[in-house]
Amino acid sequence: xxxxxxxxxxxxxxxxxxxxxxxxxxxxxxxxxxxxxxxxxxxxxxxxxxxxxxxxxxxxxxxxxxxxxxxxxxxxxxxxxxxxxxxxxxxxxxxxxxxxxxxxxxxxxxxxxxxxxxxxxxxxxxxxxxxxxxxxxxxxxxxxxxxxxxxxxxxxxxxxxxxxxxxxxxxxxxxxxxxxxxxxxxxxxxxxxxxxxxxxxxxxxxxxxxxxxxxxxxxx
Length: 220
Fold this sequence. Notes:
Shape: globular
Number of helices: 8
Strand content: 15-25%
Order of helices and strands: EEEEEEEEHHHEHHHHH
Largest sheet: 4 strands, antiparallel
Radius of gyration: 17 Å
Strand order of the largest sheet: 1-4-5-6
């Protein structure tokens, strides 16, 4: 089993914020990266992006670093194949992918939540698709014919993640950074690239993973 270390602990603070409504958007940063969020609030020079419908998961970004906001495009029309068969069990698919790649199941779930909020038909502003947000070229390289097929997407995404973990000798931080920004950038900077979006992405997954492990531990 590939072991993922508790690399980062992230805390959040509570501030009095001035609300600014938005729903299912991408905040496109000036460095070219995008952060998907459900709603946003403005506080002085910063904009708080809520990553889920609740208040507990968010990131604060300097408003000056945001180039624009774009509505997230969701492909909602089901294919005949989807309507003809029962919806796969996400936990079962992750368990199967974990068995094949030896990546911790909780780690895979954390990546899925960060990438797509577990939305099967999520499409990013850059065209990444499905649960683990595979770009078309990456999906093709992985042999994924239908990125909106849960089983194919998770299988391909975890194989891609496993290759990155192997490349960086089990260093989860570097592997996650490469999954988000590309291995060439991680190699160029010899670690996490100096991109705000990538650093927040890595921190969010590690925080989520830590929380899952602590919850399981407290339940033992």
